[in-house]
Design brief:
Blueprint lengths: L2 H8 L6 H14 L5 E4 L6 H11 L7 E5 L8 H6 L16 H4 L4 E5 L6 H13 L1 E3 L6 E3 L3 E6 L3 H6 L5 H7 L3 E3 L10 H15 L9 H9 L5 H15 L7 H5 L35 H32 L2 H6 L22 H6 L11 H11 L7 H15 L4 H8 L3 H10 L4
Parallel strand pairs: 1-6, 1-7, 2-3, 3-6
Antiparallel strand pairs: 4-5
Helix pairs in contact: 2-3, 9-11, 13-17, 17-18, 18-19
This protein binds adenosine-5'-triphosphate and magnesium ion.
Length: 430
């Protein structure tokens, strides 16, 4: 099968060099039994990739067992993975096979592997190395012929450094890694993928998509897509449903993109007029169907997460880096809609005790004229920056403060040096 045929068959859209590399790697590894680690942000296509690898392999006639390691409660994960014997714990009325036995002859997809408890990690390592495992409550050794595909949206090496992930398991998994790039790093793919979703949803909702203006198209491509392809899919669905048969201009599109606008304002919520629903079936909830409410709820949740992360990040940075004088200079340019109980409200206070109560260590307070200017220009004209802008800014400031010493800068930022290198690369910083 060539690359185009594979992409067609598994719905993997994209012509970018990055996606071609991913597809080439899928083709290289699928004929083997080698363990594969899929790494990428949420919504980049890890599931799709795992399914393609299994389906192209000789194991395709047997099962692909998908396990979300982050979603199984810690108390039962061992028996879920490896099974248990009758009577091995309260409620174990019958012996039961675990996922590894169910996947015998097939593939197991261990999603969110970074969230696996450490005592289970050692057992995973054994299965990976020898195919051997024990059911809970049994001393009999079982073996299963299982191909393992693991996925993570975390930096596993960072988890190793934090003591949350076993180093030996990390090396075992890291041999063949497929890195799925975020959508913003493959902008050429955005329009073709969007088109696919629009076609799909137009037929599902029996709606006609009228296209969009050049400006809207530019925005679609330049937007940073924090939720990647899943977010693009959601936006396509919302446009098809909520902007039924409308020509989409930039302002309309903007309402559906959450990352770029002023976080914390209600502007980035889709505006839903009652007219949109008049012909639609009512679910008895104020005339809005469950699906509509779902869309709104999701938008709210996503927005809330971004804001609180950003507030915490800013508060931590500001408090650990700025002098009291600099702190006093901030309020005129900082957002004012902050909940007084929220951590970032401490930005407005300048007592050492509030720094301590936040558990933030403060370096000796030097005054930096230059930094003042940077802070002013960074916030100028904006209510609040995007998370990425803020992150980039923080990194630049830390490097400047420590005269390019990356070890000190990474310590000040509270990240590993490796993460700092990755970020420097990501943001093209020298
Ligand atoms: N290259 C692609 N072309 C078209 N659609 C894609 C592509 N990659 C992923 N998708 C679609 O994007 C959505 C998200 O993909 P998927 O579930 O595989 O992401 P994921 O990386 O597993 O996300 P998560 O980390 O949240 O589990 C799915 O609807 C999938 O079909
Ligand atoms: Mg997934």
């Amino acid at each position: 099968m060539d690359r185009e045929a594979l992409q067609e068959r598994y719905g993997i859209i994209g012509e970018s060099a990055a996606i071609k590399q991913v597809v080439d790697k899928i083709m290289q590894v699928s004929g083997t039994d080698i363990t594969v680690l899929l790494q990428g942000e949420s919504g980049v296509g890890k599931d799709v990739t795992a399914r393609a690898i299994h389906s192209l392999s000789k194991r395709t006639r047997n099962d692909l067992v998908i396990v979300n390691c982050g979603a199984i409660p810690e108390g039962i994960i061992e028996s879920e993975l490896f099974g248990h014997e009758k009577g091995s714990f309260t409620g174990a009325h019958e012996a039961r096979k675990g996922y590894f036995e169910k996947a015998d002859g097939g593939t197991i997809f261990l999603d969110e592997i970074g969230d696996t408890p450490k005592n289970i990690q050692v057992k995973l390592l054994r299965v990976l190395e020898s195919g051997e495992f024990f059911r809970v409550g049994s001393s009999k050794m079982y073996t299963a012929d299982v191909r393992v595909i693991a996925a993570t949206n975390k930096d596993l090496w960072e988890l190793v450094q934090q003591g949350k992930f076993r180093e030996d398991l990390y090396y075992r998994l890291d041999t063949v890694k497929i890195k799925l790039p975020p959508l913003r790093d493959r902008q050429d793919d955005i329009i073709p993928i969007f088109r696919k979703f629009v076609t799909e949803f137009s037929s599902k909702y029996d709606s006609v998509f009228q296209g969009f203006s050049d400006e809207a198209k530019e925005l679609l491509v330049s937007y940073r897509w924090p939720g990647n392809i899943r977010e693009l899919r959601n936006v396509a669905e919302q446009l098809v449903v909520l902007e039924k048969s409308q020509f989409i201009d930039k302002d309309t599109l903007q309402k559906y993109l959450k990352g770029r606008q002023h976080l914390g304002s209600a502007d980035n919520l889709p505006v839903l007029s009652r007219n949109d629903y008049e012909e639609e079936e009512s679910s008895g909830f104020d005339g809005h169907s469950g699906a509509d409410m779902g869309i709104i709820y999701r938008a709210l949740l996503e927005m809330q997460g971004d804001i609180s992360d950003l507030k915490k990040m800013l508060a931590k940075f500001v408090y650990s880096t700025f002098s009291d004088k600099e702190l006093k200079a901030l309020p005129s340019t900082m957002p004012r809609d902050i909940d007084p109980n929220d951590i970032s409200s401490h930005i407005y206070r300048d007592s050492q005790s509030s720094k301590e109560s936040l558990g933030i260590s403060t370096p000796a307070d030097h005054h930096h004229e230059k930094d003042d200017d940077d802070v002013e220009s960074f916030f100028a004209g904006k209510e609040i920056p995007s998370i990425e802008e803020a992150e980039k800014f923080l990194i630049e400031q830390a490097l400047k403060r420590y005269e390019g010493n990356r070890r000190k800068a990474s310590e000040a930022l509270g990240v590993s040096e490796r993460t700092l290198y990755r970020k420097l690369d990501q943001y093209d910083l020298q």
